[in-house]
Amino acid sequence: MKFTLSWLKAHLETEASIDDIVEAMTMAGLEVEHVDNPAEALSAFTVAHVISAEKHPDADKLKVCTVETFEGTKQIVCGAPNAHAGMKAVYAPLGTYIPGADFALDRKPRKIRGIESHGMLCSAKELNAGEDHDGIIDLKGDWAIGAPAAEALGANDPVIDFEVTPNRPDWLGVDGIARDLAAAGLGKVITPAPKQIRGAFPCPIEIRLEWPEACPVFAGRYIRGVKNGPSPDWLKRRLEAIGLRPINILADITNFVSYDRCRPLHVYDAGKIGQTIVARRGKGDDQVWNDHSTRERVATANQTIDILEAGGDPARVLIEKSGRSKSELLEEAWAVFDGLDAFRALDGKTYWANPEQCVIADDRHILGFGGVMGGEESGVTDGTVNVFLECAWFDPEITRATGRATGIESDARYRFERGVDTGSIETGIDLATQLIVELCGGEVSEIRMAGEAPSAPEPIEFPVSEVKRLTGLDLPGGIVTKILMDLGFGVAGSGDTLHVEVPTFRRDCSMKADLVEEIARIHGYNRIEAVSLPKLPGRREPTATEGQNRARHARRALAVRGYHEAVTWSFCHRDQAALFGGHGKGLELANPISSDLDVMRPTALIHLLTALQENADKGIEDPRLFEAGPVYLTDKPDGQRMAVSGVRYCAAGRHWAGTREADLFDAKADAIAALEAAGAPVESLQAAAEARNWWHPGRSGVLRLGPKNVLAEFGELHPRVLKALGVEGRVIGFEILLDGIPSPKKKAETKARPALDRAGLTPVKRDFAFLVDSAVAADTLVRAAKGADKAMITDVSVFDVYAGKGVPEGQVSLAIEAVIQPREKTLTDKEIDSVAAKIVASVEKATGAILRG
Amino acid sequence: MAGPGDIDALKTELLSAVEAAADEAALEALRVEALGKKGQISLMMRSLGQMSPEERQTMGPALNGLKDTIGEAIAAKKAALEDAALDARLATERADVTLPIRPEPRGKLHPVTQVMEELAVIFSDMGFTVAEGPDVEDDFHNFTALNFPEGHPARDTHDTFFMKPREDGSQMVLRTHTSPVQIRTMMTQKPPIRIIAPGRVYRCDWDQTHTPMFHQVEGLVIDKGAHMGHLKGILMDFLAAFFETDTVEAQFRPHHFPFTEPSAEMDVKYSRAGDAVKIGEGDSWMEILGCGMVHPNVIRSCGLDPDEYQGFAWGMGVDRLAMLKYGAPDLRDYFANDTRWLAHYGFSPLLQANLATGLS
Question: Is the pLDDT reported for residue A503 higher than 90?
Fold first, then answer.
């Protein structure tokens, strides 16, 4: 919302400076976004007197002027035809930035056709002070040399732009701003009450309200014999200053009242509308409208109307070709619209109205969307003589729905959808009438009032103690009452509980807390004392949850292992998701920011892999990335899982002491490290070659606790998946779902550890080499060995895997070392042999392996 | 029969032989020759038995002395030879210590997660737990329960991402703020409540200063008697702790949020220091967060009585806090995953923000 200082002063008597006003607005919740002071842009420009203006010796159209400026007499070469001796002009010294032309004068005098020019005399356009560029500014009045040009041009009215929060439609009128500023102590409200003009004759137009929920009240008035045309300067300046384009007096008056009082109005050319005005539901059918043939008929009708109204040869040709009259053709074209319940709006576009939308219509045509935008056909023009003035109230939600469906943005929609004062019908029509009569003349009918304004807001029983309860401010009742009354509330009673009447322009206030805000806001939030929150009594448990701690520790484990932590988009492209099993049900975005990000990701690997490639493209060696973030399986709250995923290349790097290429066992190690940090019982983890199909079929696996609880997948990514994602080279990675990690059993009574079992006897190590079918998992063999004597065998590890010469085809030689831990006494050779035999027997039974001789 | 003179001669002879031994083998041969079972000294010791007591009185100690002297000399020589051998070996074991070590890549943690951990630490000290909620939210939690009525213009300000409609016509949204966690918390916990809820949020907006996904942190206090003065106090305490400054100058401006009443925005005084800011000095105001007293309708929609329970909430951008404190200027970099950026602006995994050793 924009307004000027002078406009505000029409409603607020104040001596406050612009800075004080901005500060007061800010502290009352009117957040100032920008103050544009045109005087600032013109600060370098001053009034100068032209002493003489002689023709340039070498150029017909140039004049050499002698000019008295604030810095002495200057010689200036000027091209303006109106430059003449004795005029008061606007002088720009050398080096000045010329805002309207967007260039700066040279710092040194320039020769123009051989004569030095020491500055410039400016046109209105060059100063952004008007359109005139035919000559330089010729100031009227007695302006002294050196007077600020801004003052001489009347361009010293700052424009304030501020954010209107959706709860405060009353701030969309300058009168509402003045009311709050007066309450905040900045001055006195002097908003003039409009003159009431008695009607000289009955309003000849009937008004019928067929949809009272959408339009419960509609006041109309007929004014005959007006003279429309360009608005007077004061009105034009006011509108131009806030960025509105003046059109004609009648249209400008409606815009003025809309901004002055947040009271949108509409003026119809009474000669172009029927005798009855109806506010009703639209009758158009979306399906019919969206039909191709309908669109074609509408386009043709539009074209016919445009051609005929433009007149000239094309219109003549059209009429001749059709063999009918212009009025017949127009009639036929308009009938197309009427049949569809469509109309051409003031923005030049054609709309149709469906039954969810409120239209204003006469007995034949739609005249506009109520509270949103009027029709082109019934709008006022310079030639308008009789007008019908509309001052109605439209329901915010219906207005908003219509606005959204049609995409029409208008000042009227903006106001009605936020809620225009239901008590402003009479004021609005009176003020508009007054202005029309003052500026256009004419004779005024009586007001025709249809329907009834929505009832006033409910009063609030307000215990004064609420202020202290919610803000800590201890205010006497007198201050509370004064603030509320200054804001337009009615206050009765003076005890502990006030009876507060809410004005019709403050429907945002419906409960006690709303009034507390009003009181605190005007009294000043800065007067609320900051108090540290008292500590809660007693000891507190650590505040992080188990899940948060898991992620925290896993992240650290991975960063220590060389992975940088990434944060990647939660959404991805559906084709990318399809590579990883597809997106979950219900997780397609209806309005994605881009078609590349149209579903919720089923895995974090997608963006990590593409980011890996992007890093490689920048020449970064062996980038490693991980992310601890959500993946989305369903659209239910429990369908979101915390995943920890990481990727890196199968890079070998180069080093003088030799290198090794990273492989799936690095990914497995990383996954296990992260799982261990996250608190998973890694001793119990089983690996299995059961990773899903976006992993390399032979070089990937899962880590699980039991057959169902898969905690992680790891390995090489499938080359086809990498290719589809545009990733070059071999990549290893892992994805861990932290939620599957079992929680520790109910918290132990004590954090003390059990006593250490440190076997006093030296363990015995025995090696075994087995020939086993290559399909047998090493883990199966190791587990069989471990299980041979759980009391004695404390560890079994694989120290050699060999296939090739000396090992039969389809078999592999697996060498293991078993650690046998004596418990009570040193073992005899016989006892050791007996454990070894158990190992061999157990392994043979479980895997069919044979001990190598 | 040998006399004391012989012992002296032998001693001289043997000592010079020990001294002359070139290596451990020669030394060992010498030891056997002198001290072995049939060595010269051993043989002389054996002859003690045939001596008269008077002779033995003299020769016994002399021979024992000889034996000890020679034994010690051999041991000393042996140690010297071992040392020399070790030195000789070490002289051949020489590496160019200027050669580089094997690469040991180190990763860094993302500034956003660092800041989230800092928030958790600071608020944990004030008794807040960290709460969470889903990113894919329903309309009730994201809007309706937060007093955004259906069709209210305030909904427009959120640039909401919608999921495609379900079969029943309802539409899930990507949460536009972390405020739904307020609702989930109030509906499942009994007051007093003190939570913060950091997390991902989504708005359909993408330019220099907006990304479609970013991070917010929500704060919520519900209790009897928690008022706006406490809200101011807690936020000033937080900012002082987070920006590690003693002087936070703040102003609270009235604002409007559907889910708070009264509502405010908080500005802080700041000055620029490169791409980061210094809070507590300078003379410009910077808006840093939105806050207010939880709206009675919100309290009521969570099944609590707003005349009994009251409280306040606030929300602020985590990425923005990271930018202000640590000075990475472009929001888009936070999601670009350039490892050079991460290495530069990221944090060591060995660092755990805490009150004893510091936040960072």
Answer: yes
Q: How many domains does chain A have?
A: 6
Domain edge (last residue) among A432, A451, A470: A451
Residue A320 lies in a domain: no
**What's residue A396's pLDDT?**
93
Both A142 and A73 in one domain: the answer is yes
Mark whether A636 and A660 lie in a shared domain.
yes
For residue A280, the domain's CATH number is: 3.50.40.10
Question: Is A429 inside a domain boundary?
Answer: yes
Residue among A530, A547, A587 whose CB faces B229 most closely: A530
Distance CA A242, CA B335 (A): 39
Identify the CA nearest to A455 among candidates A281, A217, A221.
Answer: A217
Terminal CA-CA length for chain A = 93
The Cα–Cα gap between A278 and A359 comes to 8
State which amino acid sits at residue A435. L
Please check the confidence at residue A48 and state whether its pLDDT lies above 90.
yes
Same domain, A579 and A594: yes
Q: How far apart are CA B341 and CA A410, in angstroms?
A: 45
Query: At B244, phi and psi to the nearest 5?
Result: 55, 55
- Whether residue A183 lies inside any domain: the answer is yes
| Per-residue b or e along A690-712, where b marks 16 or more CB atoms closer than 10 Å to that residue's CB | ebeebbbeebbbbbbbeeeebbb
Looking at residue A699, which CATH number applies to its domain? 3.30.930.10
- Is A739:A641 a contact under the CB 8 Å cutoff? yes
User: What is the residue extent of each domain of chain B?
Assistant: 4-92, 111-345
DSSP per position, A133-176: -SS-----S-PPTT-BHHHHTT----EEEEE--TT-GGGGSHHH
How many residues does this entry show for chain A? 853
CATH at A84 = 2.40.50.140
Interface predicted TM-score of the whole assembly (ipTM), two decimals: 0.89
Quote the minimal CA–CA distance from B302 to chain A in Å: 17
Cβ of A487 under 8 Å from any chain B Cβ? no
* A706 phi/psi in degrees, rounded to 5: 75, 175
A404, A434, A451: which is the final residue of a domain? A451
Same domain, A615 and A734: yes
Considering the domain boundaries, does residue A164 fall inside one?
A: yes
Q: Are residues A611 and A732 in the same domain?
A: yes
**Residues of chain A numbered 686-705 and touching chain B (CB < 8 Å):** none
Give residue A173's domain range: 2-37+158-189
pLDDT tens for chain B, residues 1 to 360: 556 677 888 888 888 988 888 888 899 998 998 888 888 888 888 888 888 888 888 888 888 888 898 889 999 999 999 999 999 999 999 989 999 998 889 999 999 999 999 999 999 999 999 999 999 999 999 999 999 988 776 777 778 999 999 989 899 999 999 999 999 999 999 999 999 999 999 999 998 889 999 999 999 999 999 999 999 999 999 999 999 998 888 999 999 999 999 999 999 998 888 878 888 888 889 899 999 999 999 999 999 999 999 999 999 999 999 998 998 888 999 999 999 999 999 999 999 998 889 998
Q: Domain check: are A166 and A212 in the same one?
A: no
- B-chain CB neighbours of A397 within 8 Å are 151
Select from A528, A543, A614 the Cβ nearest to the Cβ of B228. Answer: A528
CATH class of the domain defined by B111-345: alpha beta
Are A122 and A226 contained in the same domain? no
Nearest CA in chain A to B133: A637
Closest CA–CA distance from residue A181 to any residue of chain B (Å): 14
Q: Picking from A481-490, A614-623, B49-58, which range would have the lowest pLDDT averaged per residue?
A: B49-58
The pLDDT of residue B3 = 67
Q: How far is A640 from chain B (nearest CA, A)?
A: 7
Q: Give A 386-415 residues with CB within 8 A of chain B.
A: 397, 400-401
